[in-house]
Each structure stands twice: as C-alpha cells, then as structure tokens.
C-alpha cells in the first residue's frame, strides 16, 4: 500500500501541480493530471488485456474504475499520446508518433486565457482564466458522459442549446467504444428516463414524482444516508442527477456492457466498491411487457404476470392465454365520453409511459379528474408530485403502456377512466386462469371513485 502511495506521488507531473494544463504544457502517456483535491486522476490506460491506449479519468484510490474516456472510438496504437490545450482553449489528443489529432474537445467560444483543470468532482473542464463565474465552462467532460454517472453530473437535456447528455455502455470491458445500451431522457410529455438498446426502449426508470423515479417504486422523505437524487425540470433544462451527503463518500452509477445500471459505493473499511442497488430488478421492468391497458406484477416465483386493468379484456384471448401478452387489452365497454364515466383508483403502481402525457404543476387532483373527463381521449390521471399529500396533475391519452404493480409500500396512486357500468360491476370476477399463469386483480388495492360532473 505504501509503495502504491509513493508511486502515485512520484507520478504527479511537474507540469500539473494544481490539476491544471495551460497551452504551454502537456500530459504524456505515463504521466497523470491529479484533480485539485486529489480524488481523481487523468491519464492514459489500457482496459483489461487490450493493448490500445485511451485517455481517461479514474479514482486516485481505484485506478481500474475508469469514469470517463476521451477517445472512446479512436484508441491509440502506441504510447506516444499527448494531451495539449490550444491557445484557443481546445483540448487535443495527439499521437506524437504520427503527428495526428486523435480526439479534440469542442467549444463555441474562444478563450482569451484558457486553462484546463481536473476538478475534484471528476469533471475535466476548460475555462477562461479571466472568467469570473466559476461555473462558466468553455467545455466540460460532464457534458459528454460515457458509461458512468457521477454525482453532480446531469443526465438529460440543456433545452437552450439542445445538448443531450446520456449514458452509453462500453462495447465490452476491454472496449470503451459506445455499446448498444443507453440511458437517456425523453422529454416529450412528462419527461422520463429510458433504458434503450439502440432505438428500442428496454425499460423505463420513468418520470419523477417528487420522491423517486416511478419505475424505482420506492423512496422516502427520510434522507438517504449516501445520496440524494434530484430531478430538475424548468424552461432551460431537464435532468436527473444525484449528490452525495458526505464529501468523503464516493459513488458511481455504471451502465455495464450488458445494459444493467449498477450503483457502486466505495467502502473505506474494505477498500472496495460495494453494489447496493441494481436497477432493472425484475422482469416486469421489461418495457410494455404486458401490452396496452394491462399491468405487470411479479408472483412468488419471480415470474411476471400480466392482468388486464379492470373493465378491460384481452385483445386476443387465445394469445393472452398462451402468455403472449404484447397485444394487451381493450375496453369492454366504450367510454360514454360525456356524463357517467368515472375512475378506478389503483394504489402502489408504476405510472404508465408518459411520452404522450400532459402535465401541470398547479392543477389539483380534483381539477385533474375533471380535465380528464372533459376530453374523450383521456384515459388516466394521477398526481404529478406525491409529496405533502399530492399535488399537480398528469393526464394520459389513448394507450396506457408499461404499468407495473409494486409490492406493498411501493408505487403511487393511478386513476384509470372507465365507463359507468364498469365501475358498477368492478367487483365481478375477471377472466383468469392461474394454471396458465394469468393473474386476477384479487390482491390489488383498488377503490371506486365518484363520478364528477
Ligand atoms: C485520494 O483522494 C482522497 C479524497 O480526496 C484523499 O483523501 C486521499 O488521500 C487520496 N489518495 C491518494 C493516494 O492520493
Ligand atoms: C514527439 O516526437 C518527436 C519526434 O520523435 C520527439 O522529438 C519529441 O520529443 C516528442 N514529443 C514528446 C512531448 O514526447
Ligand atoms: C463542435 O461544436 C459545433 C457547434 O458548437 C458543432 O457544429 C460541431 O459539430 C461540433 N463538432 C464536434 C466534432 O462535435
Ligand atoms: C486576463 O487577465 C490577465 C491578468 O489579469 C491579463 O493580463 C490579460 O490581458 C487578460 N486577458 C484577457 C483576454 O482579458
Ligand atoms: C384532448 O387532449 C388531446 C391531447 O392533449 C388534444 O390533442 C385534444 O385537442 C383534446 N380534445 C379536446 C376536445 O379538448
């Protein structure tokens, strides 16, 4: 251990004592730039057994936990790489042996007096030294995430510039090039986080309800001892992020090459990364597994079960009974679309896909139901924020997909619009067959709601 520390100290290049590079300096393969507080290092590395060289950022105490890579798609074939900062404030990665530029940063502005710094958050930034606002960066690596979501990093959109910050998996543990999996923000309707494989949605961590992402299903008002999640939505930006409660704690969320997001926390006592949470916990996470107007729940054998929402029947009973659920369910009784429709309340739910939803912060639940009943294509509503007794309104139109039922204690209330006769008969038995793995809603908490005039 002591040797390692000594070695780390010896490797600090004279050029970068304060974690900075100026246009007259460079970082060579074998040298590292240490962040201002010492937590992170930037340098050249080869992942696993690969011989290729990459410029990356890792933890000072855990050099194989790489959090960011510059030249993901353009590996260096030898160790003659050089990182320089141009007079205009652009970081360039050169291969000295062939005198070619392999990677460069980008900025829409030119700096008078540029300096590049590795901050103690793990963010590599380029700044104008004369700039008085410390957060006004010409360029920052946090705007171009790789597979790791670090505290203070934003996953989502700068709506002013159109910058989309998303996570993308590595191709493999030995190839940091972008793999097939992405975690990104969809801001159509109520913004939601999606896990994608190429253009296909695999799972939906989903929208934010003031306490947690609806797909995570649990969260408490009590501060989490390690991290605090945040979801910011205003006219300038929409993003998901998190911060750490302790300055001396380290946590990272990694989208691995198999498409699983894992949150690691550094445990000093053990000097190792622990894995407290894995998203994509069960097969009901699989996007729209049950098709429209049905809900997924996990039975005792940890297998998914689909059930039509009350007042809905399988679109194709034959397929449904064989376990082909993707066609989902259809309404048994058409909506009256005037007086008489009402809502059935489901508790403990993951809200449906919000990409075609409408939302408003200041509409109460009562007004929300009224708005829904006033529009023939509205199919469901819910509170936007579930803290402090609930506030705001989300409305869904047409198909409802990717609804999930959480075990007791999780999820939130969802109001599904049905015709009056369905509310009256909502206690009648549903089509179901346990022998074929088709569940009924016997165990779900639902209550009838008054029709609103
Ligand atoms: C790594 O960073 C941590 C946090 O800043 C610091 O306490 C520790 O001394 C550093 N270790 C090394 C080897 O520099
Ligand atoms: C780049 O390559 C040239 C020619 O081989 C060599 O003289 C020079 O020292 C190299 N520069 C660095 C910074 O290694
Ligand atoms: C650099 O930024 C400009 C606009 O700021 C953009 O048009 C251009 O495509 C970017 N280039 C790269 C390589 O990202
Ligand atoms: C930046 O500040 C330095 C020292 O304060 C000054 O000499 C220099 O002219 C300034 N550069 C620009 C572009 O304002
Ligand atoms: C119902 O809502 C949809 C979606 O917001 C909208 O396009 C449509 O115009 C609304 N219809 C009425 C009658 O308000």
Automatic annotation (TrEMBL):
Identify the stretch annotated as signal peptide in this record. Answer: 1-17
What exactly does this protein do? Involved in sporophytic self-incompatibility system (the inability of flowering plants to achieve self-fertilization).
Q: Sorted alphabetically, which Pfam families does this protein's record hold?
A: B_lectin, PAN_2, S_locus_glycop
Q: Which InterPro entries match?
A: Bulb-type_lectin_dom (IPR001480), Bulb-type_lectin_dom_sf (IPR036426), Pan_app (IPR003609), S_locus_glycoprot_dom (IPR000858), SLSG/EP1 (IPR035446)
Entry superkingdom:
Eukaryota
- The Apple domain extends over 337-419
Q: Give the residue spans that cross the bilayer.
A: none
**Which of UniProt's keywords are assigned here?**
Disulfide bond, Glycoprotein, Phosphoprotein, Receptor, Signal
Domain Bulb-type lectin, by residue range, is 18-139
Any GO BP: recognition of pollen
Q: What is this protein called?
A: Bulb-type lectin domain-containing protein
CDD domains from the UniProt entry: B_lectin, PAN_AP_plant
